[in-house]
Amino acid sequence: EAQVTQNPRYLITVTGKKLTVTCSQNMNHEYMSWYRQDPGLGLRQIYYSMNVEVTDKGDVPEGYKVSRKEKRNFPLILESPSPNQTSLYFCASSGGGPDTQYFGPGTRLTVL
Amino acid sequence: ELKVEQNPLFLSMQEGKNYTIYCNYSTTSDRLYWYRQDPGKSLESLFVLLSNGAVKQEGRLMASLDTKARLSTLHITAAVHDLSATYFCAGRNYGGSQGNLIFGKGTKLSVKP
Description:
The complex is a heterodimer.
Chain A: E1 4-7, E2 10-13, E3 19-25, E4 31-38, E5 42-51, E6 54-57, E7 65-66, E8 76-78, E9 87-94, E10 102-103, E11 107-111
Parallel strand pairs in A: 2-11
Antiparallel strand pairs in A: 1-3, 3-8, 4-5, 4-9, 5-6, 7-8, 9-10, 9-11
Chain B: E1 4-7, E2 10-14, E3 19-25, E4 29-37, E5 43-49, E6 55-58, E7 61-66, E8 71-76, E9 85-93, E10 101-103, E11 107-112
Parallel strand pairs in B: 2-11
Antiparallel strand pairs in B: 1-3, 3-8, 4-5, 4-9, 6-7, 7-8, 9-10, 9-11
């Protein structure tokens, strides 16, 4: 089954404790992206990747890191999480650019 | 920098009625996207509009793009309860990085019997 998976789905952590949210797709898509969703703000793009080893900042990259060493995986790293990174995070992928994206189920992160 | 504005942000409709959601954008965007999010769920891609005058339809939803007016519309025909969801539009920065998308805040649609 074609899908985008994210782990963990839910996470409660404390300020400053490094964490990684994984994202994996099985559709051989070149494009992958991370978004955060906050009430009243809609979706905002954090980082995206046009292909392996090619990443670029979205609108809200501060406090996040990404890497794209393999085509299927695009982890989101929070080196020192802060409470303002409490949010719902979505990973997405598509073939050849951001058209017709497939979204993962979401990761709800709470930073205390 | 591209800005995307949707209106209305909230829409309560009766079943069987027609309505339109508007998506205005501030600068040139070479394509426009529409997404749907059911309550508590992830997002689903609905339409990709690539050029001026583009029209796409699926079921009771029809999306169009007017690049000169910098406007896209999502028209709902004879609404049914199953269409209750939040709808987002997004534009891609033209001339900027090809993967950067800017989303509107979303329109929460509630269809009542």
